């Protein structure tokens, strides 16, 4: 059952608000609207890219009926504290898994991705590697490119692509800045993550040579992109 159907089944609809992240997953906000409710955007934890519980608490109003927690890039969001919070406030808490355009993987494929992620964790310099967690499947291996924001991240991406390394910007535009969901809301961690994050490949088809080339390309550039003083 989809998110919209689950919200409707719980009686969430017109006049209600549902707290969701703005960092990716426009389909979550769309599902809230399909159910007849209004999406309210809360900020993310800068390490996990999942909803920040304090930000969720701050976004609650008398109209809040539910929270949709998104597991991001294959990293579990840590649902327990949200369920406890929802119970204490009488709110429905739903979970959504961010597929990120990646097909369902086998246990062997997940193990290979984890091995590649561990290799990158050890070898990469000049970028901030992702925070690991129990159950992380690394649907995307997302790093932070330090610097002055989007121009630095994009220049970094162009440079490593020129060296044959495939990469992608995981969230180009946060949902709260899309015309159909435009909101004047302060989400500093969401904005920063959208400007700095870059997904590097960790799929099972990569060879050891591919991995070494990726590390060499990134490390040759990463140390040059430092925050402005």
TrEMBL record:
One matching Pfam family: DegT_DnrJ_EryC1
Source taxon at top rank: Bacteria
Keywords (A to Z) from UniProt: Aminotransferase, Transferase
GO molecular function: transaminase activity
InterPro entries reported for this sequence: DegT/StrS_aminotransferase (IPR000653), PyrdxlP-dep_Trfase (IPR015424), PyrdxlP-dep_Trfase_major (IPR015421), PyrdxlP-dep_Trfase_small (IPR015422)
PANTHER family the record matches: TRANSAMINASE (PTHR30244), UDP-2-ACETAMIDO-2-DEOXY-3-OXO-D-GLUCURONATE AMINOTRANSFERASE (PTHR30244:SF42)
Stated name of the protein: DegT/DnrJ/EryC1/StrS aminotransferase
Naturally occurring in which organism (per UniProt): Streptomyces composti
Species lineage: Bacteria, Bacillati, Actinomycetota, Actinomycetes, Kitasatosporales
């Amino acid at each position: 059952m989809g998110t919209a159907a689950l919200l409707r089944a719980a009686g969430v609809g017109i006049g209600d608000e549902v707290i969701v992240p703005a960092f990716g997953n426009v389909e979550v906000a769309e599902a809230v609207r399909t159910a007849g409710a209004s999406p309210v955007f809360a900020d993310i934890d800068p390490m996990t890219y999942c909803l920040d519980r304090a930000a969720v608490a701050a976004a609650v109003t008398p109209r809040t009926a539910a929270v949709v927690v998104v597991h991001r890039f294959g990293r579990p969001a840590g649902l327990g504290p949200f369920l406890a919070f929802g119970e204490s406030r009488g709110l429905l808490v739903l979970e959504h898994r961010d597929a990120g355009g990646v097909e369902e993987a086998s246990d062997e494929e997940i193990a290979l991705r984890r091995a590649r992620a561990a290799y990158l964790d050890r070898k990469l310099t000049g970028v901030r590697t992702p925070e690991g967690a129990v159950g992380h499947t690394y649907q995307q291996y997302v790093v932070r490119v330090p610097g002055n924001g989007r121009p630095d991240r994009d220049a970094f991406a162009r440079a490593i692509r020129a060296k044959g390394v495939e990469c992608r910007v995981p969230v180009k535009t946060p949902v709260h800045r899309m015309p159909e969901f435009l909101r004047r809301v302060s989400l500093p961690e969401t904005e920063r993550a959208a400007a700095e994050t870059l997904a590097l490949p960790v799929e099972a088809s990569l060879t050891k040579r591919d991995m070494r080339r990726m590390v060499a390309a990134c490390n040759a550039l990463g140390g040059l992109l430092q925050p402005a003083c």
